[in-house]
Amino acid sequence: MTTTLAADGREGFRGGIDVRVSLRADVGSGTNAFDGAWFPRSRDLAAEVPELIAALDRRGLRIERFTYPLDAWQPAPRKVVVDGRVVRTGGFRSMDPGVVCLSWAGGNRRADLLVVPPETDVITGVRALRLCTRRGLPRSPQMVLAAARSQPLPQVPDLPVTRAV
Fold it and tell me: Which InterPro entries does the record associate with it (predicted)?
């Protein structure tokens, strides 16, 4: 099975909503626990991967392969075509369920992205996206997500009720 999406997002794109992904400036250097983070909206890779690949293309990364943990996702097509270019996908049972891997430049460059589970609240998800661009992160996806959750959610104060005069 092959899924196709134009790089401009014409087919199946969610009304222009940006893909929630963050990347380190030195993506692919191999010196960090994570090269960034991805906050998909579902566990359906057939819908999520083409949008991620198109977003990364717009950032100058021409991804050739996307690998993922089999047990954490719905099955994905073996090939995804984005703007006429084929990206191969592969699932492995041995991968950490909190990470996906991207390869480019003939497989010579690789990036590991922390996956923020789609069921995560938006504020925690955004915090995790930001954390993954910093140095000194733990190597465990669970610890990064715990750090993103460690700050309390913002509270909206009760405003005093005023009466119209």
Answer: DUF5994
